[in-house]
């Protein structure tokens, strides 16, 4: 049976049971559910006033003047590549250790994804790793804010400026994070995700934030068939429903039944981030005595972490069990976990086709390959209790002590 007790209990010392503990649960509460019902009752369930409110809130939160709500961050990546005219002959630098959507969109645009290695302790790219990969065909850099930490943006934007190459920050993990006192989104063009696993979730959804009005206009147009305005604008502004196609576009708008869920959580974003921080602190403290299990490092430059994922690296020699077995053994103990991410260049399509399509890769990806086999994401969501964290750590210790294979 579906248990409602987890929703909005938000209590750090809730009673712990041995029921399945998932990797994540959305931070939706009863108010959000009621707001959703109101949207359904209103009769306007697709893109409408909740989208407009969401875009306004995100603009205020990030400081970005232009915000476009979308059906996913992947859709946003598709459209931003189009807006920047990325196509055949172009190269786009991005890590292999990220979600597959970025490389997929680059490939589908006809361009070449150039994979850059990551720091094995933070899983993020640096300007030093990017620079040697830049050549005359490089048209875009897509670095990833990883697990809720912020990238070293100053160095990356300095490099981009030096070579006059645009940057699109993959901020799917970073809503609510900050770099040097400024929110992620305050610097340039970003894509945030509202997918079910993300800190602020709409079920599915994405947000483009930018300072570039041309990018914003193109994305706004392309997300709805290439019409100058979307359905809501037409209704509100009384424009003709026969608005013309300016260029052939897609269908990537966000329904209001999704937008309203994100809006509700945004009201509590500081509390959501703080709750995650407390849980991660407890994990880190308890795991510090478990040999062979190492949480990611926290970058030393000033930033605010939004604790999207609790990632640990599993050293099979020291821990006695490898990452894949750990995932299986946790599952047997009714605990969910995940991998963020499997390196893209090692996945079937890229493994089999990269060299034929694009030639030899420009660099080695040693760190990516090593950490790609070791990273494991542990349960982390705001309705977890400290007891849930203890349960996970006890399970990990039990697995280590039994040295099961
Ligand atoms: C989730 C995620 C995406 C894609 O977001 P969607 O909204 O699911 O399309 C892109 N990059 C990273 C790093 C992600 O974690």
CATH architecture of the largest domain: 3-Layer(aba) Sandwich
| Largest sheet properties | 4 strands, mixed
Structural class: alpha/beta
- Overall average residue pLDDT: 93
Head-to-tail CA distance between termini: 33 Å
| Uncertain stretches of 5 or more adjacent residues | 1-9
Share of residues in strands: 5-15%
Give me the number of helical elements.
Answer: 15
Helix-residue proportion: 25-40%
Question: Would you mind describing this structure in some detail?
Answer:
With 405 residues, the chain is α/β, with parallel strands linked by helices. The protein has 15 helices and 13 strands. The chain has a 4-stranded mixed sheet, sandwiched between helices. Helix 1 (30-42) runs antiparallel to helix 9 and helix 2 packs parallel to helix 9 (256-266). The longest helix has 19 residues, at 269-287. It is globular. The model is unreliable at 1-9 (pLDDT under 50). It binds pyridoxal-5'-phosphate. Pyridoxal-5'-phosphate is lined by residues 72-74, 98-99, 101-102, 144, 170, 172-173, 193, 195, 206.
Quick structural gist:
The protein has 15 helices and 13 strands. The chain is an alpha/beta fold.
Task: Give the tags.
globular, three-stranded parallel beta sheet, Aspartate Aminotransferase, domain 1, 405 residues, Aspartate Aminotransferase, domain 2, alpha/beta, binds pyridoxal-5'-phosphate, four-stranded mixed beta sheet
